[in-house]
Amino acid sequence: xxxxxTSIVINxxxxxxxxxxxxxxxxxxxxxxxxxxxxxxxxxxxxxxFIEELKKKKRVEIVGPRPTxxxxxxxxxxxxxxxxxxxVAKSLDATLVTSDRVQYLVAKxxxxxxxxxxxxxxxxxxxxxxxxVMSVHLRENxxxxxxxxxxxxxRLKTLDEFMDKEKISYVISQIENYARAxxxxxxxxxxxxxxxxxxxxxxxxxxxxxxxxxxxxxxRPVKRLTLEDYNLRKELLERINREAEGIxxxxxxxxxxxxxxxxxxxxxxxxxxxxxxxxxxxxxxxPPEVSQYRRLEGSYEYTKDILLLVRPxxxxxxxxxxxxxxxxxxxxxxAGIGMVGIVHAKAPIDAIERFINRVELGMIPQIIDTxxxxxxxxxxxxxxxxxxxxxxxxxxxxxxxxxxxxVRDFFTERxxxxxxxxxxxxxxxxxRSQSKLDKELSKIFDxxxxxxxDGRWTVIIPKSELKKLNKKSxxxxxxxxxxxxxxx
Length: 488
Description:
Rossmann fold, Beta-Lactamase, ten-stranded mixed β-sheet, seven-stranded antiparallel β-sheet, elongated
């Protein structure tokens, strides 16, 4: 005789079909399945469906008392439902069959015969992940779709295989069963949505009422890169080593931000830096030496307290999205911890603007000193920030001087944006005329620097370029752009 607990009914292992009759299912299990079904959870419906299939080929009997509402409500925390099922097995002198390790261990401790059947080792979506597949997209009443390629260069492939309600329900149940059997918990668990990290796979499950249909999205890194693979220019590597302590890694979704962050984290570890991560969900690929943290008791306030005691050299924050995320990044950086934040942005300046109005303007260069923008898996633009006292571009009166945050291209030192206060408003001013002026200057001079000072453009040239100042084209530029020349 065998008593099946709730985990077995939900997991539906094939070994159940080899068990001899009679098979007992407790009213406690039915009550738990009913509770799950009323909450709209897939496990409840799957369990009832399996019981119906079992009745067609096996002698199934329903036994035992029905639990109280309180026992059902606190089933997971208190284990009351599991206890009722064990009591039924003990009274029948039957073998308890379970997929729950804890249930199995308790039964053995109580000297109740028990059989542990764990779900199959493979995950149902792994068959789709061939060499170049980045992600798998499964949706109810739709064909299976795959993204093949790499960040910035992928294509969507639709397979002939069709996912009906029964198939996708099976996929979802197998993922959840695998997680339970291997003590893997869900990173995000909400009404209608679940996120879980299993090995390299980040799995997002959505179902009604959140989604109009059941769907599963599975993403994995296509390849692992080191910092050497990005062929960083010497000056950028030196900045990462010596100066950059408030870094933003920005880019659009799927551009390769996290891949670069992984490479940077591994590099810091190789330089004997103490590195921690803040992730929700946790999917960075970091060495064993790196602790991956999340919200402690649902709050980053508590996590910050721990991090300040741990004293890491760098904290990688993947991803900075919500208001409390930004405040956490700001607080940790102002406490002197090196921060690397991963931010969704269409352009580098967008990542900076998301910090405006969340902190005093003058503190921004202390919080963010370097922005690395990732495009198509490669480093695109790199911005640096610093604060000066000057007359902002477009203004000409000296008494209008004020603190200005300059945003420059790291490699060329070109001034790209100015951020300053104008009355109560914060202005992000794009230096538009500079690109035209640069083009005209580059036709005349081989070596120069261009800066905006006190309402006019200042061109700094070495003495070797001095003879070119007599050209007519230079005199035209002086008049057109209100230029001033300085000799180094």
